Amino acid sequence: MDKPADAIVYLDASIDISASPDAVYDVVTDISRVGEWSPEATGGRWIDDGTGKVGDWFSGDNSAGGREWTRECEVMAAERGRDFTFVVGGAENNRTWWSYEMAPSDSGTTLTEKWWVVEKPPIWLDRSEEDFQQRVAFTLDSILQTLDGIKAAAEGG
């Protein structure tokens, strides 16, 4: 997905992976395993028999800074081998988006992880801009660690 014009924050980073785009997609969309590669997300589960199609919802568990939380997310793009995008709290809330885009490369796949915020989540409304920018920096570091972890999982079988 392209960067939306109304994003107040946008980050992206890419990594080359020696695996096919379909294999990378299968790793990225196995939300039960996300804790293996993410420094913040610890796991997830599909809601109401969801399987990862557009419109399906999942619960994502997270932990950082001594705090744990769960957020429900709506799948907005699900193109095997190309794009898996979801929005925390659903499209109606339109706040925080995550996208994983795969493109064929000489080595197998270039995976790009994107994160953007359209509107600050309620928990951030009363915090300082400095605190919010620290969160943005933390998220960029998390994206880089997550890409490394996905690469290891996809290349390791």
Blueprint of the fold:
Elements: E1 9-17, H1 21-28, E2 41-46, E3 57-64, E4 67-79, E5 83-88, E6 96-105, E7 108-117, H2 129-155
Antiparallel strand pairs: 1-7, 2-3, 3-4, 4-5, 5-6, 6-7
Helix pairs in contact: 1-2
Provide a concise account of the structure shown.
The chain contains two helices and seven strands. It has 157 residues and is of the alpha+beta class.
Explain what you see.
- The chain has 2 helices and 7 strands.
- It is 22% helix and 39% strand.
- The protein has one domain (9-155): START domain (Alpha-D-Glucose-1,6-Bisphosphate, Chain A, domain 4, 2-Layer Sandwich), CATH 3.30.530.
- It starts with 8 loop residues before the first strand and ends with a helix.
- α1 (21-28) packs across α2.
- The mean pLDDT is 93.
- By secondary structure, the protein is an alpha+beta fold.
- The protein has a 7-stranded antiparallel β-sheet with strand order 1-7-6-5-4-3-2, covered by helices on one side.
